[in-house]
Structures are given as C-alpha cells and as structure tokens.
C-alpha cells in the first residue's frame, strides 16, 4: 500500500453523512443559475460502499447549503467513473464556483480537479484526499486515528474474551481509496507489535475492491476455509464487518469472534447490541458536512476558507490546507451516545428484536 498522509495539526471531533442520486436546489430567493452568484457542486461516490453516503452526507450538506442561502447541486456517481466525470463536466458548464468531490479513485479525481482548476473553479476534497490531485482544501477526519481506534478496539475485545494467541484476519478497504491506506496504517500500528511479540498470530490479510460487501463475504469465506481457527477480524468498516459476521453466523460462531467496524451505521450498531460486532468508529458526519459547507460557501463568495490542519499528499509532494475532525470509538456501553447525538434515531435502531437490547443499553 501507499504511504499515508502525514497529519501536521491537531484534529477536532467531527461526524458525517450520506448521499443519494441527483439533488439540487436554487438559492433562497429562487433565482436561477448565475456564474457570478455562489453555486456549489458536490459529487458523492456511491450508495453501496457505506450507508453513510445515502443517509447522512447528502442530508447534512443540503441543510447547510439551504441555511446559507446558496444554490447547490448534489449528485451521486454510483460507483461509475465515467458518470463521475460526466457529472463534473455538467456542473462546471452550469457555472459552479466551487466543486466538492469524494473521489472514486485518485486517477479519476485528479482529472476532474484539474479540469475544474483550469476553469477557475475552487475545489475541495471531501472525506478522501485525491493523491496527486489539485484540490485547494481537504475536509475529513483523522483517518490514521480511525484505524488506531479499530486496532485498539479489537485488542480490547480479545483481551475481554481472554483470547490466547488469537489468529487475526484483516479485511482492508479498497486499495484505490487513500483513506483505506490511512486506516491500515493506524490499525497495523497497533497490531504489528502484538504479532511480533507473539501475543497474536497474523492471519489472512486482504483488501476488498471498491469496499464491496458481497466481495467481502466471499473473501472472508475463503479466509475461513484456509484458516478455520480465525479468532478475530479487523474489518475496516461496518459493511465489511457485517459480511464477515454473516459468514460466521452460518457456522454459529457469531459473537465468539470479535469483529470491528466503522461509520456507526444502524446495521453496525445493531450488530454491536446483539454482541456480534466488537466496536465501530463514529465519525460525526454532520460536523464534517457542516465544515465542508462553511468552507465551500466562503470560497464561492470569494473569501478565504478557515482550516485547522495541513496534510501532505505524498504523490503530489505538496501540503494541502485541511479541516480535520476526531473520530470516537463506540462499544455496547456507549452506543447510546450516537443516538443522543442524533446521528441515528431510536426508531430506526431499536426495531424488532433490538428493542429490548436498546433498553438494556440505556438508549432512550
């Protein structure tokens, strides 16, 4: 994997959201598109890799843009690189002042950012840094810290279970997503010393193309076939974690093998309440979206954006001004904090068999 970003400033807590397909709105006064007026375009990556893009990011970004009274257009590329570029072309032609992207990979992202830059459009990398790209700003979480929390979480759960030299399998995120590289840097920094000390045994380790959950299930089945005594799973997000849990459930081993996650999805939190998932990482998407919207609105109005960090793009050999937020580890005893924060509702989380588990976990 490529070397991760070097964080050179303190991070602040932040949480995030989700997307769907096209979503656009005119400015508060109802006026049409005008290149001289603030107009912001946002391209989200897909609706399959994580529920967050559909359930949180679009919602929070839309709310923030509406509150600011600016015209905006939010679209989802649905994992299609050609569609990603087509959407970008349409947005640039329509006169956006600022283009915010969540890249599908750095190659596609770079092409879009370079084209926007050539047209005088300000650019922001949202959530994922485009390596070798030209985005003026980057808004995300401290992603190495996300991975560190996952590694520490798995270690905690294995310790609580009094596991003896467990074999740990790893389901990494997509090899084309720089965030996956950063997550791995974080959790490997925790786990590698334990492998070296003989506390854990390093088991199968594989990346999942495009964060595809179906492929993750197939990959994990193969892992379990090659190494039936897997005793812990470092899964890079809740979707990959759920894929592993589904395979373990077929063998009646769910709950016996701790599995990590990320994104604090409803499914991930339900798995935690049921005892099938060890932990997840909560990234306050609303804070990430609000920070992005604030920055984008400033740029669209010709003002300078405020940042709190700098990250290094190792491929572009440049430093990028950034806004970074701090992630939070979530276990069964603090699932209630995610609900209290409004990221998920009690109604969507505490359905059916999970109602009693929610009550037991203190969720009100």
What does this structure look like?
The chain has 364 residues and is of the alpha/beta class. The chain has two domains: 39-142 and 284-325, Response regulator (Rossmann fold), CATH 3.40.50.2300; 143-283 and 329-361, Response regulator (Rossmann fold, 3-Layer(aba) Sandwich), CATH 3.40.50. Helices cover 41% and strands 19% of the residues. It has helices spanning 52-68, 81-93, 106-118, 143-160, 178-197, 213-226, 238-250, 266-273, 285-300, 335-340, 346-349, 354-360, and strands at residues 12-13, 23-25, 39-44, 71-76, 98-101, 122-126, 137-141, 167-172, 201-207, 230-235, 280-282, 309-313, 318-326, 328-330. The strands form three sheets. Strands 1, 2, 3, 4, 5, 6, 7, 12 and 13 form a nine-stranded mixed β-sheet that branches. Strands 9-8-10 form a three-stranded parallel β-sheet, with helices on both faces. Strands 11-14 form a two-stranded antiparallel ribbon. A hairpin with a 4-residue loop joins strand 12 (309-313) and strand 13 (318-326). It is globular. This is Sugar ABC transporter substrate-binding protein. Pfam families: Peripla_BP_4 (PF13407).
